[in-house]
Structures are given as structure tokens and as C-alpha cells.
Amino acid sequence: MKIDRKRLEHSIEELGRIGATERGGLTRLALSDEDKRGRDLLVRWMREAGLRVTVDQMGNIFGERPGEPGRPALMMGSHADSVPTGGKYDGQLGVLCALETIRTLNDHRVRTRHPVTLVVFTNEEGARFQPAMIASGVMAGKIALEDAYNARDKDGLRLVDELERIGYLGAEPCVPRPLRAYLELHIEQGPFLEEEGLAIGVVEGIVAISWSRLTIHGVQDHAGPTPMRIRHDALVAAADVVSGVRTIAREIGGELVTTVGNLTVSPNIVNAIPGKVTLSIDMRDPQDATLDRALPRLDRVVREACEREGVRYELEHYWRVPRTPFDREVVAAIERAARATGAGYRRILSGAGHDAQYMAAIGPTGMVFVPSRDGRSHCEEEFTPMDDIEHGANTLLGAALELAGAL
Amino acid sequence: MKIDRKRLEHSIEELGRIGATERGGLTRLALSDEDKRGRDLLVRWMREAGLRVTVDQMGNIFGERPGEPGRPALMMGSHADSVPTGGKYDGQLGVLCALETIRTLNDHRVRTRHPVTLVVFTNEEGARFQPAMIASGVMAGKIALEDAYNARDKDGLRLVDELERIGYLGAEPCVPRPLRAYLELHIEQGPFLEEEGLAIGVVEGIVAISWSRLTIHGVQDHAGPTPMRIRHDALVAAADVVSGVRTIAREIGGELVTTVGNLTVSPNIVNAIPGKVTLSIDMRDPQDATLDRALPRLDRVVREACEREGVRYELEHYWRVPRTPFDREVVAAIERAARATGAGYRRILSGAGHDAQYMAAIGPTGMVFVPSRDGRSHCEEEFTPMDDIEHGANTLLGAALELAGAL
């Protein structure tokens, strides 16, 4: 049994048109008008595939294909939101490969012991509302529903109000549900599979992640008549921190990655000495212990940079996810399915957070990776060859068949 | 003859309420609704002082007090726009001291040989529309009217459309007019007068200024699965430039000041490696030759930072104003007037650009400075004691009486 490559390709193209950018990418921020249109299309396709569609309190969409009564569902899916000027594979590909798996089961009139449920998670990216993976986080009981509802985008709009506005504030409780397993196909977003000429990554788990937020308070002043000797420039201190964050990765080495992705200057005009800078620090490593070493270094980098410039600061380590190992049985099932496709594969660790991270706290979880060209993602150049997507989708299908128990 | 301190103080307070911020500052961006309300109040006060009010093509407001027919006017004024969360002295104080000077002439029924004209310049700050001092620049023939009209704010709104919207797109040609002299009172925006316990600065000229714009093109990618070895992070290169710009001032020393005031990151989210950064570089020195040495250093700082990170860039030195010496006769008149107040004064150079810079190309020009507490400006803490303001305004009055020729 194989998925229908043409049908899958067509779906990727059609959904990819909603929020498409001129340069081949995608801007479909969570709970935007584009997100609503993407969701509407997916719901239509889910209904056409005979699924019973429900929406929960966090706007997560479920489409259930029945199994034997009383059995926990095999759940598959991903998210449909994107970062600004992102690509059309991140998230959407996992949803569409799961949908294609169900369509293939339908084509072959396969009945399964366990129900098979397609899920589309809300606001995975964290680009519009923070934190990322907020909806699977609520489902896993790691984030309070009220906190999630009160998350605000940069214009001050609340998540709950935007859910209601686009018509996806559902009634189903967003709580853990019995799971046979959770499977998610996703692009690798790193260079390893492509570099090694492999089509499939059998994901063993997700690296440990730490997010910090730094606010630097300098002294806003005129850039002309203020002599250098009396300056307290928030941006000069921030630049020191950006360099220092890079140095932490270089000094600790290994697989540690450190990034300042967000930096905002105030008042941000040519002729004013910056009075305030806020910035983010993202650090990840396969080992929790590495982050335990990196965080005190970050504290020191920030303290020394701010002391040098004579500026005040607040540093907050506000989000930490330990390394998430996936379920041994599920990983093994994915590996068998990958081998059966005949394509090259290897076991791999995910450097990115995914909804699968929270789902692993609810039930047995695993992921399938497909390669990212040049290792790139979260950009318009994001691309995965259709050959690899086909192998990945067939791996998902194979694992689903085994885990759901074809009758 | 002395100005009326109470009346001046009251006017500063009243105008300062329009666009006032909670923390005692001012946000009155050029051609905003607040700017319109500020202008309307000034026009009312100008008419109440018996002035003939006209508005030119750039929205500059003129209020003329007649002199002998055919004589060139003594012009006095400044601007009424502010930077975001700026103070209520920068610009507005110069306009109100000029108005108070005219009110005092009226009180004493003084007739002058030369007409005395109050001027309120449009968009001096350059905070909303670039470049700064755009309207005096057009008047001096240094900026084309069409270019000024097409200047856009960050929301894409054109200056000419905003002029029209607030009702200040006048009919008078914005061209050089015969001038007896141009006088501008302004806050120092630096620490020197306060440090030396002086009330008045007799400004001899304005430092040389250079503005540059840098765009860095990195490779946008996911902050998690992208190993450090393949990164091309636009913000890491930009941080290097910010540090390097500070180093230029330290190495060349003297009175050179260098500032990165504006820096914008794209896509600017926690978990994406910055793909693009734009930033500004502002450099100033009393000597043109110092900037001639600093600019090639800036080129090298940028080139080396971008080479280290493997990123492309465009660097544009888009605005350069040579040192502007003021008119010897006007400066001497201001000095005599300062001495006559009995307050402490000294000759000084302005580190900030002012409309007086362009006016110096049209006619004999000079400026009066009053101290800035802690040298601070372009911030809500901007403050000048009323005692100093009184001495400054009396200096302006004295110089105006001498230059306009009391009959």
C-alpha cells in the first residue's frame, strides 16, 4: 500500500497558495485571516475524507476516522501556521501527509483496530503568540488555558479573541485524551539528511531548549551633543551580548546552538542614543547538562556587557524544555516503516521544538523527518524534494498501519 | 527691556500639554494630529500678537511684524515637532522665546527698522520623515521640493499628503527670502553649560555631520536545527558593527561622537536566525577632516564584520553636512546681548543639527543655547531651569533689538 504522490503534491500546492508570498514562501500567522482560510480548506478536505471534525477550546482541529469502539486513537498531524515570510513545508507538510495517509486508508478500504485521528494544532510557531506550541502545551497540561487565552500579539490582540474572530473557538475541552500513539511528519530544518543523501529521519527525540528575555535600560539622549564619556547606550551593551551569545556556542562547542533572533531598539531613530533594547536568547543542545552550563555563562555575558556600559538590565530565563525522548516502540515502528520504503534513512534528534514534544507527555510519540534543502527553513527558500516527501509519507503510512492495527 | 518670564513660562506649559506623555515628556511627531493642534495654537497666539500669518509649500509657518518697507526681515524661530517620547523644550522653546520677544516688543510699542518674522519649521527632527531639517533644507535649495514631498514615514504615508491632511500645505513658495539675520534659541542638548554653571551659550557654529545606512543580508534559518558552522547571521555581523562604531570614536578620540541609533531585525522572532538587519550610523565632529578619517574606518569595520560572518551588505553614506560657521556679526551681537543679561555665558559649538544650519546658507545666522539638565535631550527627562530660559530669552530679545534696529 502506497500513498498517492500526485494527490499529495496537489494538496501541498493548493494549501500553499493561502498566504503565499511573491518569492515562493508563506506568511500565514496563527489566527490570521490566512490561517482561517487554510483551516477552512483543511476542514473541507477532512470532511470529504469522511472524518468527523471537532474543534477544541484552543482551536485545535480533530478529524476522526473510526476504529473499534473504546480503543484509544492513533493521532497524526502537525500545525498549519507559519512564521512571517516562512516556507510552505514547515507544519503544513505534516498535516497533509497525515491527511494523505487517511485518504490512502480510505482508497484501500482499510479498517483499523484503533481510530485514526488527524490533528491540526494552533499557533505552533510562537511567531504571533508566545510561547510556541501553545495549544499542545495546554492539551498536555503544561500551560494553563487562561494564560494561553491571554497571550497577546505585538498589536495587543488576545489569542482567545482572535480564535473567536476567525470562528475556531471550539467547545471540546483541551485536555489529554487516551492515545494509542502520536505521529508527526515534519521537515528536518537542518542540513544532516541532505548532507548524507538520506530521505528519511527516524526521530528519537527533541533537544533541550531554553529561552531567555533580556531588557537593557540605557540613557536615551541626543546622538549629537552628548559626548562619548557620559553615554550609557543600551544598544552598545546589547551588541556585546549578541557577540557573547555567539561566543558561548563557540566555547562550549559540540552541538550547542545559540541565537539572538529578536532585538528591538527604542526609540530607534538615527539621532537618538538608544535608551532601551529588548532581545531574546535561544539556546539548544541534545543534553540538558549542556544548557545547565550555558545558562550561567549567559548570566555572566549579560552582567559584564551591562557593567561595561553602565546600564541596568533584567534577564529572565522564562522557558525551558528538557530533552524529550520519544517512545521506543513508536520509534521502532517508524524505523521499520522507513526501511520498508527502500529509501535511505537514519535515526536523528530534532533541533526544533514540535507539538510532538508536548504530545510525548500524553502518550507514546514519534516523528518522521524529511530533508530540508541546504538545511534551511523559516524562510521563503524552504524546500523538500517530492521524492523525499513521498518516502516520508509512506513511512508515516507504514507506521500508522502498524500502530493502528489494520484489520 | 526684559521679557515677561511668567507669560513665557505659561506658554511653555500650555503648548507642552499638546502631545504630553505621562512621564512629563512629549510625543508630537511632525504632521501628526498633535502637531496640527500645536500649530493651531501657535497660529492663534501669533495672530493675537498682531502678526500676519502665512504658510509656505513645506508647511513652514511665518508670522510677520512689520518694519520699514522694503527692508529684509530679522527672522527668529525653531520647530514644534518632537521625537517619540522626547521632551517639551527641544524646538518648542525656541519658537516660544521668539514669540515672547515679539510680545515684549509689542508691550513696549517698539518699532523696528527691519520687519521681525517668527518662523515655525516643519519636520526638523527627522524622526517621522527623513532627512531631518527637511523644510529649511528645501528653503535653502539644498533639498528638492519634490523629494521632500515624496518622503515617506514608516507606514508609507507621504509628507505632502500629511501636510494636506492637517491643513498646512500652504501656497507661499518655499524659497530663500532676503534676511537681515536668522536667530534661533535652542536647548544645548549637551552637558557643557550645566557642568560649567553657565546660563547661555553663544553658538559659533554647528559640527560636521555624516549619516550612513547599512543593510546586512544574512541567511534566515531556524534557530534550532541549524548548526553553528553553517550560519550566516545578519545580527551577529550587525553587533560587530555596533561595537566597531563605538571603537572608531574611542580610537580617534577628541570630540568625535559615533552612534548607531536605529537597528531593525528581520524576521525578528525568537527562533529564526536573523536574515536581514538595517542600521544607521551617525558621526559628528567639529572638524570636517575628522569625519574624513572616520568614514574609511567605518567602511573597514563594516567590511570586516560582514566578511567574518559571511554575509552580504550595502553601505551608503547618504547625508553629509560640513561644519557650519555662523555669521561673525550675528554671533557678536548675541554675545553682547548675553553679556548684558549679567548671566554666565560662553561661546560654544552645536553638536546637533538645527534649521539654523540651512538658514546660514540663506543669510547671516546665529543661535542662543540654554543648558540641558544632565546634558539630556530627546527623552522625557529633558529639562531646562526657568532661570536659564529667562536669561536665554533676554539674550534673544537683546540680539533681536540690535539686529532689527529699534527706532
Write a concise keyword list for the protein shown above.
2 domains, 407 residues, Alpha-Beta Plaits, alpha+beta, globular, homodimer
Task: Provide a short characterization of the protein structure.
Two copies of one chain form a homodimer. In chain A, 36% of the residues lie in helices and 23% in strands.
Give me the secondary-structure topology.
The structure is a homodimer of 407-residue chains.
Chain A: H1 5-16, H2 33-48, E1 52-55, E2 61-65, E3 73-79, H3 92-107, E4 116-121, H4 134-139, H5 145-150, H6 159-165, E5 179-187, H7 192-195, E6 200-206, E7 208-217, E8 221-222, H8 234-252, E9 257-259, E10 263-266, E11 272-273, E12 276-285, H9 288-309, E13 312-321, E14 324-325, H10 328-341, E15 345-350, H11 355-359, E16 365-370, H12 386-404
Parallel strand pairs in A: 3-4, 3-5, 5-16, 6-15
Antiparallel strand pairs in A: 1-2, 2-4, 6-14, 6-16, 7-12, 7-13, 8-11, 9-12, 10-12
Helix pairs in contact in A: 1-3, 3-12, 8-9, 10-12
